[in-house]
């Protein structure tokens, strides 16, 4: 009997300095934040981070974990500008690979298909190509002969995503409205881990409509950790919305007060201590779903 | 009948979508969203639009807190599907970039030097893909030389009519910049070499004033007219789409759209 259950610490144990990690979710939505808080307390550095970025990128940047950021944006949606990312970017210390959002996905798809690249028109005309001279172009081998961008594979060593439900086998369900690109992070990566709101019996997935909400194959998944409220302060619809006041507080300490924030919410705190520090599970579950 | 500058801009921006038929609209920000919703509610009923997150809706969702209102879903539009549509076409995005240059190139990434920017903003987001594949329009709330820059924008995210940047010097086949609505005027890309040109001036605004606030040489149609004021029907539709009057916050002091009015 396969049993992939683990805890967040086990996932963080897999991360070594110099690795490339892919982080699921989008902006301030369904980010594996419990994993991020664990990771920023570890003695790892020089990470290459691939993310449709939100506070995951901000926290890793603020703690000096990132040497290279591969991104299309960093934003917290209803709090549009991510202060910690901005600080790091403006300091000139963060090496960045700035990509169009769709190119980013194409890079994951190339890695997932075990290909060196996938072609696209996207990038031409923009500074994405001038600032990333490593991205090459090719000519169509067919009669059209069109010049195309050869978007290189983006291959994480490890991908980590947060989902609503999973079972011990690694089957998982994203019951929010948008699965984002989690499946592509998992397929692109050598190894993928999931954190989830709840571990459920496999029978809970025995429903054709629920099966439509299960984009990640279980054979991609090496470990599953149950972490209720594990996406906070980002949203995990339909279970809870984003904690906008907390995101604002987190953003406000980008210039001053970050150390106090860490003491209050991160350093040495296990999951229950963290949840208590931000108002408790009931308060988190009552956070309204965002209206865009 | 009185109307605000915001309402004038919403109506002028809605015109960007005229003729789009069953295009999918992506409208970022309050004015673009109300503009697309107005177009959909009046002269372009075929437009496809979302509730802002993941579902296509069969009627535009009013902006702001929704109370008991539930979006009327007509289909699914996850981000992955958005990317597929970006590549397929039949999509029109209206956005508010931080910088625009004479080629229509747009920037929301940084201000200053790429390696050590003075100000880091969002990143290129989907601009490169949107602009090489889809129709694009812009709303600019503050028409000035910081937005309409004299050189190229600091980081080209949205591509424009700049042959020096095109592969082989040939125009990308689907590049289609449509319309810019600012607080001063309405512009399109119908000038020589797709140059930006003024097509109408908002009431009380002079061409000299627009040019003075633009960092590059602005073309102009022969005798530009005055931007058409909203009709009563349009104002009623806008009021329904914006029940909390969020549009009153677009411009400081919510100025009137008519010259000489308070």
How would you describe this protein?
With 292 residues, chain A is of the alpha/beta class. In chain A, helix 2 links the parallel strand 2 and strand 3. In chain A, helix 2 runs parallel beside helix 3 and helix 3 packs across helix 4. Chain A starts with a strand and ends in a 7-residue tail after the last helix. Chain B has 262 residues and is an alpha/beta fold. Chain B has six helices and 14 strands. Chain B is globular. The two termini of chain B are 13 Å apart. The mean pLDDT of chain B is 97. The interface between A and B is large, with 43 and 49 residues.
Radius of gyration of chain B: 18 Å
Q: Report the average pLDDT across residues of chain B.
A: 97
Uncertain segments of chain A of ≥5 residues (pLDDT<50)?
A: none
Low-confidence stretches of chain B: none
Class computed from helices, strands and strand pairing of chain A: alpha/beta
Number of helices of chain B: 6
Roughly what percent helix of chain B?
A: 10-25%
Mean pLDDT metric of chain A: 98
Quaternary organization: heterodimer
Major interchain interface with per-chain residue totals: A-B, 43 and 49 residues
Q: Considering DSSP H and I runs of 4 or more, what fraction of the residues of chain A is helical?
A: 25-40%
Number of helices of chain A: 12
DSSP E strands of chain A, number: 13
Quickly give the structural class of chain B: alpha/beta
Number of strands of chain B: 14
Strand order of the largest sheet of chain B: 1-5-10-11-12-13-14
Distance between the termini of chain B: 13 Å
Q: How would a crystallographer describe the biggest sheet of chain B?
A: 7 strands, mixed
Which key terms come to mind for this protein?
heterodimer, A: 292 residues, alpha/beta, nine-stranded mixed beta sheet, 12 helices, 13 strands, globular, B: 262 residues, three-stranded antiparallel beta sheet, 6 helices
What is the structure about, briefly put?
The complex is a heterodimer of chains A (292) and B (262). Chain A has 292 residues and is an alpha/beta fold. Chain A has 12 helices and 13 strands.
């Amino acid at each position: 009997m396969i049993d992939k259950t683990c805890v967040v610490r086990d996932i963080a144990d897999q991360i070594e300095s110099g690795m490339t990690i892919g982080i699921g979710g989008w902006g301030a939505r369904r980010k594996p934040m419990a994993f991020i808080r664990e990771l920023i307390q570890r003695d790892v550095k020089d990470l290459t981070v691939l993310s449709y970025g939100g506070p995951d990128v901000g926290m890793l940047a603020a703690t000096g974990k990132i040497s290279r950021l591969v991104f299309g944006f960093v934003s917290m949606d209803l709090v549009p500008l991510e202060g910690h990312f901005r600080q790091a970017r403006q300091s000139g210390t963060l090496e960045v690979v700035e990509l169009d959002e769709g190119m980013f996905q194409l890079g994951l798809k190339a890695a997932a298909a075990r290909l060196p690249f996938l072609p696209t028109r996207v990038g031409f005309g923009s500074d994405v190509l001038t600032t990333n001279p490593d991205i090459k172009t090719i000519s169509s081998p067919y009669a059209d002969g069109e010049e195309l961008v050869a978007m290189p594979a983006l291959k994480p060593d490890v991908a980590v995503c947060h989902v609503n439900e999973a079972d011990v086998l690694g089957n998982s369900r994203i019951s929010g409205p948008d699965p984002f690109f989690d499946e592509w992070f998992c397929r692109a990566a050598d190894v993928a881990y999931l954190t989830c709101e709840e571990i459920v019996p496999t029978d809970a997935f025995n429903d054709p409509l629920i099966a439509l909400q299960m984009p990640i194959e279980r054979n991609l998944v090496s470990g599953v950790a149950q972490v209720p409220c594990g996406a906070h302060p980002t949203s995990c619809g339909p279970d809870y919305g984003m904690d906008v006041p907390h995101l604002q507080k987190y953003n406000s300490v980008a210039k001053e007060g970050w150390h106090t924030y860490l003491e209050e919410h991160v350093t040495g705190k296990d999951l229950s201590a963290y949840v208590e520090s931000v108002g408790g599970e009931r308060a988190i579950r009552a956070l309204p779903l965002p209206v865009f | 009948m009185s109307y605000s500058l915001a309402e004038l801009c919403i109506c002028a921006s809605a015109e960007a979508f005229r003729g789009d038929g069953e295009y999918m609209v992506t409208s970022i920000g309050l004015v673009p969203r109300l503009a697309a919703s107005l177009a959909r509610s009046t002269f372009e009923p075929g437009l496809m639009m979302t509730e802002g997150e993941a579902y296509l809706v069969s009627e535009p969702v009013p902006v702001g807190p929704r109370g008991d209102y539930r979006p009327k879903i007509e289909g699914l539009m996850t981000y992955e599907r958005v990317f597929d549509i970006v590549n397929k076409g039949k999509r029109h995005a209206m956005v508010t970039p931080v910088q625009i240059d004479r080629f229509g190139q747009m920037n929301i990434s940084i201000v200053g030097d790429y390696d050590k920017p003075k100000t880091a903003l969002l990143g290129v987001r989907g601009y490169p893909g949107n602009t090489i594949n889809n129709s694009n329009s812009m709303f600019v709330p503050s028409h000035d030389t910081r937005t309409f820059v004299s050189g190229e924008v600091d980081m080209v995210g949205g591509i424009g009519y700049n042959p020096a940047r095109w592969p082989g010097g040939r125009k990308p086949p689907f590049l289609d910049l449509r319309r810019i609505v600012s607080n001063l005027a309405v512009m399109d890309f119908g000038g020589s070499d797709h140059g930006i040109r003024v097509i109408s001036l908002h009431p009380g605004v002079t061409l000299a004033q627009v040019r003075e606030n633009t960092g590059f040489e602005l073309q102009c149609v022969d005798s530009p007219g005055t931007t058409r004021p909203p009709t009563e029907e349009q104002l009623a539709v806008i009021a329904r789409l914006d029940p909390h009057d969020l549009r009153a916050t677009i411009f400081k002091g919510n100025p009137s759209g008519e010259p000489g009015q308070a």
